[in-house]
Write a structure and sequence with these properties.
The chain is mostly beta strands and 237 residues long. 8% of the residues lie in helices and 62% in strands. The chain contains two helices and 14 strands; from the N terminus they run αβββββββαβββββββ. The chain has helices at 2-16, 163-166; strands at 27-38, 49-59, 64-84, 94-113, 121-139, 145-150, 155-162, 168-186, 192-202, 206-207, 210-211, 218-219, 222-223, 226-236. A hairpin with a 6-residue loop joins strand 11 (210-211) and strand 12 (218-219). The longest helix has 15 residues, at 2-16.
Length: 237
């Protein structure tokens, strides 16, 4: 995937080179990819992954730009152990592996601030808001009954239910914000490479509280807020 992405960047640079004599563009496209780290409590429930972004930037002044962007982050599989019981009334609990993986997709609108400088390497900051869609797929090789309340899997059963009611696909669509910064390095008058670090915070739904009917263990109500830190390298032209 990353090798293909590198070839794409080279191709776009070569295509943009003839435009080197043009003035700085009022409208730019950006395409990038990299690594996304999961932060906060969610890191114990879903895994880190790779990211891809595609956007358009309108440079409304020499120092301010407006960006509309689509982003995708793949979430690697995470394994958790959950007690599964042989009958709805209990029995001997068997620790059973459950697996969760998914992705995050979002559309956001950002304001970019880039100070005017004569250097080819130009720092910038950005901030904005967006709508985030987070689906999660849950699987397990086990059979039996369990009680589980995991806000990051968007599932909460306060009573024993069949395992096949727990596994499946679930999702949440929520509002969020992001801010960060980076460095844009000018290759030609029409093309540049950028390195960017950004923090995303998502206000997720609340699940719980729940009480395990057999053990009496309590799980408090928890919000499935998301925190993501994508590190992206990309190209603007």
């Amino acid at each position: 995937m990353f090798r293909r992405f590198g070839f794409l960047l080279v191709a776009v640079v070569l295509a943009a080179a003839p435009a080197a004599a043009q003035d700085e563009k009022k409208v730019q496209l950006n395409i990038g990819g990299g690594f996304t780290e999961i932060l906060g409590a969610a890191a114990d429930h879903i895994g880190n992954g790779g990211n891809f972004t595609l956007g358009v930037i309108f440079n409304v002044s020499p120092t301010v730009g407006i960006q509309g962007e689509y982003g995708w982050t793949g979430i690697k599989k995470k394994q958790l152990s959950v007690n599964v019981y042989p009958t709805p009334s209990g029995g001997t609990a068997v620790p059973t592996d459950f697996f969760a993986d998914g992705n995050m997709q979002y559309g956001d609108a950002n304001v970019l601030f880039h100070p005017k400088t004569d250097s080819k390497a130009k720092p910038y900051g950005l901030a904005g808001i967006g709508v985030y869609y987070r689906p999660v797929n849950i699987t397990t090789p086990g059979v039996g009954y369990t009680t589980i309340c995991d806000p990051y899997w968007y599932v909460c059963y306060p009573t024993l239910v069949a395992v096949d009611q727990v596994v499946g696909s679930r999702s949440s669509t929520d509002f969020g914000m992001n801010f960060g910064g980076g460095v844009n390095y000018k290759l030609t008058d029409a093309a540049s490479i950028y390195f960017e670090v950004r923090y995303h915070y998502i206000w997720g739904p609340e699940l719980g509280p729940s009480v395990n009917p057999l053990t009496g263990a309590q799980t408090p109500a928890t919000k499935a807020n998301g925190q993501f830190l994508p590190i992206t390298v990309g190209f603007r032209f």
